[in-house]
Amino acid sequence: MKLKLIFLTLFLATMQLALAQVRFEAKVSKKKLGVNERLRVDFEMNKDGDNFTPPSFSGFTVVGGPNQSISNSWINGKRSYAKTFSYFLEPTRRGQFTIKQATIEIDGQTYKTLPIRIEVTGAVDKPKDGNNTDFVASENLHLIAEVSKSNPYLNEAITVVYKLYVSPRISVSNWRELDSPKYSDFWSQAIDMKQLKIENGEYKGEPYRYVVLRKTVLYPQKTGKLNIEPLTLTVSVDVPTKRRDIFGGRLYTTVNKTVAAGNRVIEAKPLPIQGKPDDFSGAVGDFDFKVTTNKTELDATESLDAKVLVTGNGNLKLFDLPKLNVPNGLEQYEPQHNERVRTNLTGMGGSISDTYTLVPQYKGKYPIPSISFSYFDLKTETYKRITSDEIVINVKNGPDGGDTVVTSESGGTNKKLVTQAGNQFRFLKLNAGLQAIQKEHFFKSTAYWLSLTAPLLAIPLFLFFGKKRKERLSDISGNRVRKADKLARKYLSEAKKNLGNQKEFYIAMERALHNYLKAKLHIQTSDMSKERIQRLLKERDVEDAISIEFIALLESCEFARYTPSSTSAMQQDYDKASRVIASIDKQL
């Protein structure tokens, strides 16, 4: 009986110790998620505590929380207690991140959670963790990537058009790119979108409004299945609620929604082997080819230009032009490459050329042999070859000597030795007609008297400008103003060059504002949150009005890139930025 009592006492003591052990840990809904998904983090404890401190959640935006829940239950006479702090996080970019340690004080002791590694990948087709509060936004907002062709040839142009569809049930107030696609297996060229235009259309048979956000031309550089990564946006959506105002109007709530265009896969076909020319350099499209010279008759040691030119539509920047071969009697220099290529929805179009400078050394006739250019024609899906005409250069005057190249009847070329006749140096001018220079005495000349009196006349000028310089240096306030204005013009010079080009102007102005802060406040671009900027400016005794105006400029740059703006509005923003930078610099 005593033995049973001892065992029972030991068992109860062990259970009490186990129950008394404090547990504080962090749990996540998943350790790998897409950039368009959300993450839930729970900090759980089995005993109540004080001074809970969450981590900074670097790499994420807190979109919900902290939500606090308490569970207190009795099971078989045993008390179970749990307290949880929950956060909902949204990734800001792809990469590897760490949920750092949270701390809490329980019974005078500080407890910490273990760090958790999180991997954020590209956007997934269907986010696995929905949020009931943004269900309406999810059902009425769609980002679509339209691909012009799913099975192109290698180096054939295809177009990807990104459209944002918005249902009439909701409205969109703002958006920004969260993750841009990386076209690793393509040569890509973005088409400049000068102005965003809202149009009416349909999505799955229902009326929608849509706006084309981006157009990109892609040329596959590999064969097989190639992945087009999704474009990911974070969108501020105004969703109607069941509540109404005092006038009966429906109230709206703003939801930040992340949408992605989804992965698109194309099958790039290799070019056919049959009929492929040996000198094929990868040209795909519809082209014309010719070789021209700016002159065919000239004298020795004069120069002429020979141009190898390809015009048409296709992958103009992605192949090499054939080389020009010339006879020995023509001295050839390295060609100057020139590209006049425009890119639109059909691909690249225009011309590329190599211009050679040729200099004949002796008189005679020099044929420039014909050369060939081959390309793959997408219309007929066959290889085509274009051969240039032979060009004969006639050098009329010059020294006799060396080899003169002539054309044989069979179309080939052979060399014939030229017999030297007469004086082969007759082209040199032996009588130069030089004249002696008359001597002029410097003493008592005009130059002599000017050099003597000029230093005396310059003394009053030196005194005058020295006085002005001293007054300028003593003007401390004026110097600060001039220095600040000069600094503002320096940082905003690029923006001024792009006045009239809305997108480039606001990108340049935003970069100028960031660079100015980096130089003055010694912070990196990744640390430039609006709250941090405002706090640092306040610590440097910058007036609140100027600080608020600076933040408003940054927000204006973000919004104006996606909304229409006139040249006069850009000029006003430029003047405002100059004034704000100058004011901040004076106060700093």
UniProtKB/TrEMBL annotation:
Query: What InterPro entries does its record include?
Result: BatD (IPR025738)
Domain of life of the organism in this record?
Answer: Bacteria
Keywords assigned by UniProt, alphabetized: Membrane, Signal, Transmembrane, Transmembrane helix
Question: Which range is the signal sequence, renumbered to this chain?
Answer: 1-20
- What Pfam families does the entry give? BatD (PF13584)
Q: Where are the transmembrane segments?
A: 447-465
Question: Which protein are we looking at?
Answer: BatD protein
Organism equals Aquimarina atlantica
Q: What is the lineage of its organism?
A: Bacteria, Pseudomonadati, Bacteroidota, Flavobacteriia, Flavobacteriales
